[in-house]
Amino acid sequence: MVRAVALHSIVPLRSHPAEDAEQLTQMLFAETCDIISEKCRWKQVKLHLDGQQGWVDSKMVSTLSEDEYNALEHSLAGAACVRLPMTYAVSGNNGQTLPLTAGTRLPNYNNGAFSMLGVTFRIDPQAVAVTTLDMSSEELMTAVRFFLNTPYLWGGKNALGMDCSGFSQVVMSLFGITLPRNASQQAREGEEVPSLHAAQAGDLVFFNHADVNPEQTNISHVGILLDRERVVHCSGRVKVERIDSNGIFSVEIRDFQHPDGQYTHHLACIRRYRCGGTAR
Asked: Which listed residue (221, 234, 265, 266) is catalytic?
């Protein structure tokens, strides 16, 4: 199997080998994948992080020898990662800057420097989480507050645009939790929490849209609980809204019949995780 690594800050993963194809997700710098097939200037890949498959522009990834791949994977095991929505690294080769987004793992990180494939980069240590954060309402709010008002972008997972499951995947990675990419997949991981009364900060809450029968189990949205009354999620933008046993109540969605706001998503289930994406 031929493997490759992302050499750019963000690499779009598309549904078909075309620039105008749907963006399924994004690879972050230093993220690795298997190359499944090739077509013209496109490579079909399977991401090692979450198993997502799609097409990337060949010039945005670099193939790895077996030795390079093994060394990179070893350096990424338990690696430090970017904790701020956006920061910059400076190449020791040519002095050029490389923008990096939250959740980007930094191979061989040590005291403000990391290296990959023979290139050393300098980075502000204050932008780096050397160890995973401890889950609490305060730490969670500190982690997500920089993402507030990030616009919704289908398939996005960075501070300039993200979707609901990209947001949950990136934020939870800061706490050492590895999740699948899509909300319906994330809802099958972890341990079931029976009710909002039993929930705690960091639990993921999954929803149907308000115009869907609440008895149906089709998952269309995900958010992260800050506490039993507040959820942070990406719908239009990243924001904090009220939650109860019925679902998300938004004061932004008002009309003549609902002057005080209305429910936008029906609560379907609640899940709890620990490092590695399994039940804690």
From this structure: 221
pLDDT score for 212: 52
The pTM assigned to this predicted structure is 0.89
Q: Which tokens hold the place of 264?
A: 């936008």
What is the homologous superfamily of the domain 1-77 according to CATH? Answer: SH3 Domains (2.30.30.40)
Q: Which DSSP state fits 8?
A: S
**Contact of 235 with 149, CB cutoff 8 Å:** no
Domain ranges of the chain: 1-77, 78-130, 137-272
Q: Which of 8, 33, 81, 233 is catalytic?
A: 233
Q: Give the integer Cα–Cα distance in Å for 104 and 266.
A: 32
Active site residue 233: yes
Marked catalytic residue, from 33, 81, 164, 234: 164
Taking 90 as the threshold, does the pLDDT of residue 274 lie above it?
no
- 137-272 to CATH, choices 3.40.50.620, 3.30.379.10, 3.90.1720.10, 2.40.30.170: 3.90.1720.10
